[in-house]
Amino acid sequence: MSKLEKLCEAYEAFERAISDIPDVKVRKLCSPTGGIRKFVADARARTPRPTPSQIAAGLEQGWRETPSLIQGVEPRWRPVLTKAWHDATLSAYPDFLANERQRLEKVLERGKIRTEAEFYRIRHEVDLLEGEADSTIELNRLYALIDAYEAR
Fold it and tell me: What span, in angstroms and rounded, lies between the C-alpha atoms of 145 and 47?
């Protein structure tokens, strides 16, 4: 299966998982993902015609930014959306998670967040871990990284 197909499946799974959440901001987050195959078809029809790998690169960047968009919704929905995003990624595009894990490990090894993208990557990890009983030590480490980055 191509990267483009994996991304389409991830976007669709995410949309299905969050479509019943009764929140306006979630609806806005959900609406672009519901028509992903139409978006891809429209993109392929443009002139100049983008390659499938160019379209996949754009979708992947959008997928990577979704956790930061989740931060804009009401706090009570964030864990639900984060889990939906994670589950959709795990089922449709697990390689993405492996790459993101490597990015996380680099930040942890360095002990410092350098970029906004890394900040959102750490913030996403916090959302995944919050509420888990045995994650206090890791959460404190991540909170310290976030605090140091925000203090700059």
Answer: 44
Query: SS3 string of 77-141?
Result: CHHHHHHHHHHHHHHHCHHHHHHHHHHHHHHHHHCCCCCHHHHHHHHHHHHHHCCCCCCHHHHHH
Structure tokens at 101: 């894990």
With a threshold of 0.85, does the pTM exceed it? no
Long-range contacts of 85-92 (CB under 8 A, 24+ apart): 85/14, 86/128, 87/13, 87/17, 88/10, 88/11, 88/13, 88/14, 88/17, 89/10, 89/63, 91/9, 91/10, 91/13, 92/6, 92/7, 92/9, 92/10, 92/13
DSSP assignment letter at 71: T
Coil, strand or helix at 39? helix
pLDDT of 116-128, one tens digit each? 878 888 987 887 7
- Give the chain's residues under pLDDT 50: none
What are the respective helix, strand and coil percentages of the chain, to the nearest 5? 80, 0, 20
